[in-house]
Amino acid sequence: MRAKNRLTAGFLKSPPAGKHCDGGGLWLVVREDGGAQWVLRVTVHGRRREMGLGGYPALGLAEARKQASRWRDMAAAGRDPVKERQAEERAARREDISLAIITADAFEARKAELKGDGTAGRWLSPLALHVLPKLGKVPVTDLDQRDIRDTLAPLWHTKAETARKALNRLAIVIRHAAALGLDVDLQATEKAKALLGRSRHVPQSIPAMAWADVPAFYASLEEPSPTHLALRLSILNPGVRSKPLRHIRLDQIEDDVWTVPGEDMKGRKGKTPPFRVPLSTEALRIIELAKPHARNGFLFPNRNKGVINDMTLSRFMERRRLEARPHGFRTSMRTWLSEMTDAPHEVAEMMIAHVSDSAVVRAYRRTDFLEQRRVLAQRWADYVTGGAARVVKLESEG
């Protein structure tokens, strides 16, 4: 080994610019402006590593040698001193590796994969509502299956889907922490799932109105208010879910086609094409009735700002003492299509904008069946507004 302790206190009183070796890989690097830095060079597994120890004279010669000795011993034991120091710094700043901080970092890393960059908050909400209030301050390196089990146990048998989403998101956050180099238990969520056992929760479908009852309910929506008109348009076009319905804009409608942006359609990720909705004569009439309410281009604005609330239509039906909810009109129409028309399966599924079949099948199917759907949309509207419940036949397109 090269000689150590070459530098002297006298030399360090006014060291010239340049690199000065103390031995054993310890160097004092003096800049032209007079500033100086202690640097240690070591070799770990055949790879040279260089790490700054601190500035001189704030870090004196004796302390620099002491630190250098410690890190050299670590390198000799086959451990990377640079990574070890980073780990120690993270441990000293435990709040920086709390679950809340790592969750926020993981969310930022995934935003591009989420619909609308995750602005709706649905990716984060299971964690923000049910996990972070209890575990947010816990260092992610300390998180174990018992912590997770105790946190999700109150939901596991009552709100199973919410608990499942929270567990899934938590697994992603833990993997993100591992990618950052943190010493986490990658199996913690699976172990927690094993501890929680099988959920007793029985999922229930959203209540739907029988298709035979839809015309009477539709007729009861007599007021030209945004709520009544939005609910009518929802019944006529149940394939369009709450968000795009509430955010419908006049510039999305051309002739008898309403073009919904692809990012607003559920189950469609990335750069997906927009979804075309054929509008029946009745749907166009409802849109004309809604135009006097339009503000900032939106057909169904809120009284203050933005658009009508997500729960507005559901609460309206609840006040009517109805079990069914707006989302259930998808089931109403789909059942009517099955029982009262000869619509092919793929056309009927497209009517309610249901993503069906495999990705390969969808890739080869280069049509959205607009013309067939236009016929069915008009027949549904005729039925809803009082038409006869007769079987609808679709003509072949060739």
UniProtKB/TrEMBL annotation:
Keywords assigned: DNA integration, DNA recombination, DNA-binding
Pfam family membership, one: Arm-DNA-bind_3
Domain of life: Bacteria
Domain Tyr recombinase: 201-377
Molecular-function GO terms, alphabetical: DNA binding
Sequence similarity: Belongs to the 'phage' integrase family.
Name of the protein this chain belongs to: Integrase arm-type DNA-binding domain-containing protein
Organism: Roseinatronobacter domitianus
